[in-house]
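tl;dr need the bound structure. longer version: we got a ligand (fe (ii) ion) that a collaborator sent over and nobodys looked at where it sits. i said id run it. heres the input, straight from their email, havent touched it
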Amino acid sequence: MSTKLEQYIQSKDNPNTRNAEIINQRKIINGKDDGLMQISPLKHPWADELFRTMLKNTWMPQEVPLAKDVEMWNDPNALNERERNVYKRSLAFVSNLDGLQTNNLVNNIVRHITSPEVSLAIVRQSFEEALHVHSYATMVEALGLDPDEIYGMYRRDMQLYSKNKTVLQAISKIDDPLFKTGTFENDQLFLEACISNIILEGIYFYSAFLIFYVLRRNNKMPGSAEMIQFINKDEDMHLRIFTHITNTIKEEQPELWTSDFQARIRQNFINAVEMEYNWGATCIETGISGLTPSNLKEYLQFVGNMRLESIGLAPEWNSNNPFPWIDEITQSNMIEVNFFEGTVKEYSIGTLEW
Ligand SMILES: [Fe+2]
Ligand SMILES: [Fe+2]
C-alpha cells in the first residue's frame, strides 16, 4: 500500500476521478487514503453518526457538583474503611486506564485507519479520554486526596500493578513505530488490538463504574457517581466505535476471522473476565452493601457475554444481569430515565441538569 503522500502525488495523473470512486475503495485499514479527510460521501456512515452523537454529548467535569462528596469524605462516619478503600482503588484504576487509552488511540490505532470518517470518530474519542483523565483529577483535587496515593498506587499495590501490566501488554502488541498493516499476521494483530479496546471499554471500565454506582445506591458519593455516569456515556460510544470497527474489518477482510483467531479472541475475553473478577474481589473483599463477590462475578460474565455476542461470537457463560437497575446507564441513548431519581432527563450540550 502506497503512503498518503504517494497517493496524493498520484492523484494528478487521474484528474477526472470522482470522489465516489475513491470512496468505494475506502476500507477501515489498508484502504485508499490520501489523508485529506474527504468525508462526503461516506463509506462508513455509522462512524459519522457516532461522531455527531459524541459532539452532542459534550460536557465538562468542573460542572459536576462534588460538594456533597467532599462533605461525606470528610465525615469519618459517612463511609467505612472498606468503602473508602474500594473508592480509592477504583479511582486509581480508572485514571490509569484512561491515561493508557488516550495514548493508545493516538499512538497505536488512529495512524493505521484509512477511513477518514472513522479517524474523526477516534480523534473525538481521544479528546473524551483526555477529558476523563481530567475528571479523575477533578475528583482527586475536590476530595483533597493525596495524588501520590491515587496515581502512584500501581507502584505499591501489586494487584493494580499486574492489572495495568496486562492491559498494557494487550495494547502494546502493535506499538512498534515500524508496525504496518497489510500482511495477514499484522492485520490479525490490528484486529486483535481493536478487540482489546472492546475489552478495555466494555469490561474493565464497566466493573469499575459498578463500584461507584453501588456506592451511590447506598446514598454515598453522589457527585462521583454523576461524574462516572457522564464518563460511562462516553465509554458506551467508544464501545460502539470499536464494535463497528471490528465487525466492518471482518466484512472487508473475512479471511482474518479464522477459527484459530476466534479461539484466541475468546480466550482474551475469558482472561479479562477472570482478571477483573480477581481484582474486584480484592477490592470489595467479602462485599459492600449490595455487591458481593458472587454477584460481581455474575455481572462480569454477563457483560463478557454481551461483548462476545456483539462481534459474532457465542456467549461463554450462563449468567444473567444481577443489577437490572444499571441498564438505564450502560445501555442508554440521548434521553433516558435517571436511575437514581426516576426522572426523565435529556442529555445534550449545555444540559447538565440531571
Ligand atoms: Fe475514557
Ligand atoms: Fe473510552
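gonna send this back to them w/ a short note. The longest helix spans residues 184-217.
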